[in-house]
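Dear colleagues,

As part of the handover before I leave the project, I'm documenting each prediction I ran so the next person doesn't have to rerun anything. This entry is a single chain, and its sequence is reproduced below.
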Amino acid sequence: MPTVDDILEHIGEFCFFQRQTFFLLALLSASFAPIYVGIVFLGFTPDHRCLSPGVAELSLRCGWSLAEELNFTVPGPGMEGEAFPRQCCSYQVDWNQSALGCVDPLASLASNRSHLPLGPCVHGWVYDTPGSSIVTEFNLVCANSWMLDLFQSAVNVGFFIGSISIGYIADSRFGRKLCLLVTILINATSGVLMAISPTYTWMLIFRLIQGLVSKASWLIGYILITEFVGLSYRRTVGIFYQVAFTVGLVVLAGVAYALPHWRWLQFTVTLPNFCFLLYYWCIPESPRWLISQNKNAKAMTVIKYIARKNGKSLPASLQSLRPDEEIGEKMNPSFLDLVRTPQIRKHTLILMYNWFTGSVLYQGLIMHVGLAGSNIYLDFFYSALVEFPAAFLIILTIDRVGRRYPWAASNVVAGAACLASVFIPDDLQWLRVTVSCLGRMGITMAYQMVCLVNAELYPTFIRNLGVLVCSSMCDIGGVITPFLVYRLSDVWQEFPLLVFAVVGLIAGGLVLLLPETKGKTLPETIDEAENMQRPRKNKEKMIYLQVKKQDIPLN
């Protein structure tokens, strides 16, 4: 019996319906960027100092400039240029006393300022920024700086829990479409509620809810578009779906520059999500999922709808769909299906490690080596641009070489770049930045490749679950990466780069143990997934004929 790939060859592998669906889901992919990296702008920490009530009056009376006010009233940096005392401590001085003069007012109290007592900022802080962020509004600095870390950790915890739980539900009970729409609604609602949250606690709760549904929504969209298109277009739409996320990063930089106040920024990037609810009338359920659930009549209805939208006719010989023999009954996915058989178990473990590696290197390189300059918007913009060449390199190599070797090479390049950075002297900063960008490009390619290949290695009935479970490891990587960077840097500044190098090189070697998926149809059953490394007959070359028998009289 014909498969979905066979039918798509006749009704269009990437025609009007697929193009329209890809465009709609690409918008969904771009909208995920503010949630994944929005902390850069929402949690921006500007330069700050203690608010001292009497300083403003003294400065006004003496006619000080801002530089003079800071020089006379704010503690200097601590040991080795640390800014902590300047930002988190103030002189324990009554600035309202009349004995203080306008020229070095503290000289009358102590000959050396280091002898003056310092204390915490009891009256709040003054922030040197024209805008606002959750840091400036809720004072998430100094002793409260851990609350900003908790804010970002809540998103990653939500990613982890939501990916696994919603992935299971989408595969086993309610399908791709319903789960997509429900997660979109919850994401949009919680995003708006976060923008109007009166306290840090409520903001944290709504951010956690966004994490629970937003990544699952993005990955369900990825699964849907790869299941709607034909074999020859599957990898291209998978790559450009991730390019849409990069476009979202670039747009986010511009929107954040235009809206420097975090509440308006959060409103602006959240409200468009409500428009995605219109997808109820635009995007049908995946026919592959319907077949895996033994809902053949509904699957054929969707296939006929796709054919009609593409302006194609469905041959009569292809209008009877049956699941493969292994799927004689409705198949309910289980977490055990990801490790029950030897080949799928190997795929699962290698994919989980590569998701983890991608997250650690991707975020770790950004944390360890920043781009030159102090403009946060330009820095973010430039770092986003690096991801575009990575996508086009994949497109140029993936059909000629395959998936495995470019994927392994990108991991090796990222690891080698980290290793090389250890030995580059500090005075060659341009070379360090160049090598860091090369490593960023390599790990971006690896990140995109793991998402593409992950969907190609699992049979239909556990495909969504497999992608979501494996990709949940990148959330764990996102949680521990700051500790790897900052704690290991206390031991030796280049220690994190050595760890990144080892992790990346190991990932490149493990990729070579996976089967090549170039030119292969998506596996429909566990047997097909288990036998992917064995040569098999390409289904797309099979031709189905309907033969009409004639009655021949017997003599």
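The beta strands are 48-50, 89-91, 118-120, 125-127. The chain has 23 helices and four strands.

All the best with the project,
I.
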